[in-house]
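Support request, priority: normal
Reporter: lab tech (M.K.)
Component: structure prediction queue

Hi team, I submitted a job for Reverse transcriptase domain-containing protein from Araneus ventricosus yesterday, and the status page still shows it as pending. I've pasted the exact input below so you can check whether something in the sequence is tripping the parser. The sequence length should be 132 residues. Please let me know if I need to resubmit or if it's stuck on your end.
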Amino acid sequence: MAEHVLKRLFDPPEDSNIYTAIPSTQFIDPLFNNQEVWMVISHLPTGKAPGYDGIDNLILKILHKKFNILLTSIFNKCMELRHFPSSLKIDNTILFQKTGKDPQQISSHRLISLLTTIRKASHTKAHLPYEV
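Reply from support: The job had stalled in the queue. We restarted it manually and it finished. Here are the results:
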């Protein structure tokens, strides 16, 4: 299952050279292990609005408990290729009008960007404590 998902996310177009674009001597960040991924996933707050993909943090937690190698493989493939799939970069941007402000003024609005849960989780590794 993990290989099927990875192939769908990372299979480049015919004319793409993404797999050969990274020199083999280039420094690559350390890869995720299952414990690090679980630490990130377990700290995601539940009850928050999902992003474009509609995947709630609770669903991601359940998914990782059942198929822990899947998310670890996706995150590591992103690190190895230094590429994050475009389908996971899409966000929902919501415009809220501030209370009592003129709706015609741009400063009267607040933008909120809802990122995909997988994107948020994959970008959290830099904030992990090193005791893992």
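The two ends are 27 Å apart (CA to CA). The chain has five helices and two strands. Let us know if anything else looks off. Ticket resolved.
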